[in-house]
Amino acid sequence: MTVTGSTLVITAASPAPATAPVAAPAARRRAAGRAPGPYRTLFALPGTRGFTAGNLIARLPMGMFGVSAVMMIAGQRGSYALAGAVTATGLAATAVVAPWTARLIDRHGQARIAVPATLIAVLGSLALIACVRSGAPAWTLFASYAATATTPNIGGMSRARWTHLLHDSPAAHHTAMSFEQAADELCFMLGPVLAAFLCGVLFPEAGTLAGAALLLTGMLAFTSCRATQPPVSAAPRRGSPLRALGPLLPLFLVTGVVFGSMEVTSIAYLDVQGLGAASGLVLALQAAGSCAAGLLYGTVRARSLKTCVCALAVSMTLPWAAAATGSVTALAGALLLAGMATAPTMVTAMSQVHARTPEGRLNEGMTLAVTAIFAGIAVGAASAGWVVEGAGPAAAYAVPATAALIALAIALAGRSIRRPSDRSRVVRTTTAGDPR
Predict the structure, then answer these.
(1) pTM over 0.85
(2) Which of 119, 219, 241, 356 is the most buried (most CB within 10 A)?
(3) What is the span of the domain harbouring residue 169?
């Protein structure tokens, strides 16, 4: 939900503490009678704008590839079943490959691993286009799309850079994590819309081609910003991220069920209402609410994970209630409000991933969290589809509501799930070879 560095080419020296470059601009603005906002202060740090620009360009295709593949394969081969099976195989391959890619990035550095891994993924996308266009056997589609599983977790690498830069400033780190979550929501809101537009208006392969080009361009821009890369830790690698994140992974899994089931249920509900063409816009309201809430959350003090999950559980009952009224307007408003509880929950949960992951393995830890979310999305989509077929789309809104209640039960029952103190976050991200 979520779910993750260094310079092997050249090892970048650690930048000055985050407070040093921030203090001078802040003091000047206060002297001028205008206090800087937290995001203005954040991007006053040298190098942050450059890697953020590359990060956003490379992140946008994450919301494009699935839709583009489905539209391309279904359009050329005339089978949505084949298209769905190919994309499902890609997700399964990602669940296996992504943690290994993240581990290599932690061990050898972002630029040294992320660039060749991205090239493999781009070649996989191009191979998929060639196989679809040439009428190659179906198995070649599965093999080609599975190769895209090497795509690095660009969101995790960006979060790792912020953690490295802001290791002595918990408040600024919270703001940065909120920005990253808002960026996730924005890209997953715009990505499918852009993919559908390109495939529908231009040609079926346009979405995949554009996604591959954006991914490679953004990754090259991101990795070229060497000064902000977190250095590889020379300390022995102790502890397992999987073991450290054990109490959190079930929570990420169930949260993924919320996301996957909500999307499928909403699409089915609007289709029954004769508004299937507007489903993208209505779903975008949920992402927009989460994006806005994420940016706002970055300006206030972080809340406990239990509080955030409680708000998520309450908000996920709203679409269920709105669907019972039969009003699409009420459903749209409910989805907007439900989305506003998503970003704070994910920001706070990811902060615990940062605090718990062993030193030098942050990308791997975050990728494990994202993998759990993706697994939950698959389970949620399948569960919601089964309920839609058996009881109708209005009743299927009980699936995300129930999953959110299970997430709350996990958060309340788990004694180890709590908000880490600022001190613990600083210790875990700065102490080399921390054995905990």
Answers:
(1) no
(2) 219
(3) 37-231
